[in-house]
Design goal:
The chain is mostly helical and 278 residues long. The chain has two domains: 133 residues, no CATH class; 133 residues, no CATH class. 64% of the residues lie in helices and 1% in strands. The chain is built from ten helices and two strands. The chain has a two-stranded antiparallel sheet. Helix 1 packs across helix 4 and helix 5 packs across helix 7. The chain is extended and about 75 Å long. The C terminus is likely disordered.
């Protein structure tokens, strides 16, 4: 298998999936890795990442154990590392009609162009990149992460100072027109309050009417939509049930881990700039 052919085909697929300027490099660069990590991901880890992403595409285009759409895309673009084939040659290899191969190729790409598919693909790419860095033993130094946290405090402090200055200058301007604004507000507030109250009362009547009728109704400008009550599950109860019936855990889904940054309140943000990066 030729890795370069696979990478070229993958970039062609990504250009069609997102837009003409999107490639594996640009997607990785947008995931928030630092310069050293990007160098590693774009170098020695790139073949492994490409192979894993091709597998993600295969899963996306496979249902009911059938992956014909993926095989068509794979042969047309060379995702299998073999030279790309023409539409006719691909159809002949897979023993299908050329017209159907053309249709399936377009539908396969469209299936991956949805916003949900694009976001899921980026999440998978982040997961794969993190796994490759971890397997390579490229764990960031604790001191480096702490330096970044201090640097983040400095950046937010600078932004806060700029925001304070902005608010002060804005207040000066607003003070000049405040009296006029208050006069206008006093004139219109009773009218607006009355209109809002009337509209709110009528909305309540309409909602009750729709609930009593049990159906949606459409007017010239507004539509009242009747919706059945949402079904929900008691998470604590289900966890308790799963202790005695572990087979239900097959249907449980757990999201990927994430990181949240919070202000600790320790130290003075403006004094953290002296920390160095090791």
């Amino acid at each position: 298998m030729d890795v370069q052919i696979q990478l070229t085909g993958l970039n062609q697929f990504l250009a069609g999936m997102y837009d003409g300027d999107t490639s594996l490099d640009t997607l990785v660069a947008a995931l928030g890795f630092d310069a050293g990590q990007l160098t590693a991901l774009g170098g020695r880890h790139l073949p492994a990442i490409a192979g894993c992403l091709v597998e993600v595409i295969r899963r996306r285009l496979t249902w009911e154990e059938k992956d014909l759409w993926f095989r068509i895309i794979s042969r047309r673009l060379g995702l299998d590392g073999e030279p790309p084939a023409s539409l006719e040659a691909t159809a002949q290899t897979l023993n299908i009609d050329a017209a159907y191969a053309s249709y399936a190729e377009g539908e396969a790409l469209q299936k991956c162009r949805t916003k949900a598919a694009q976001e899921e693909f980026k999440k998978e790419l982040r997961r794969i990149a993190l796994e490759e860095l971890a397997k390579g033993g490229e764990k960031p130094a604790r001191e480096n992460v702490l330096w970044k946290l201090e640097r983040l405090a400095d950046l937010h402090a600078a932004a806060d100072l700029a925001r304070i200055d902005y608010e002060a200058r804005r207040a000066e301007v607003m003070k000049k027109v405040q009296d006029e604004l208050e006069a206008i507000e006093a004139e219109y507030k009773p009218v607006l309050d009355a209109a809002q109250a009337n509209a709110g009362a009528l909305e309540a009547e309409i909602k009750n009417d729709i609930l009593l009728r049990g159906e949606s109704l459409r007017g010239a400008m507004y539509q009242a939509i009747y919706m059945k009550g949402r079904v929900s599950w008691d998470a604590a109860g289900m966890n308790e049930y799963a202790r005695d019936h572990p087979e239900v855990l097959h249907f449980r889904r757990e999201g990927q881990p994430s990181v949240a940054l919070r202000v600790t309140g320790r130290g003075v943000a403006g004094e953290s700039g002296s920390a160095g990066q090791n």
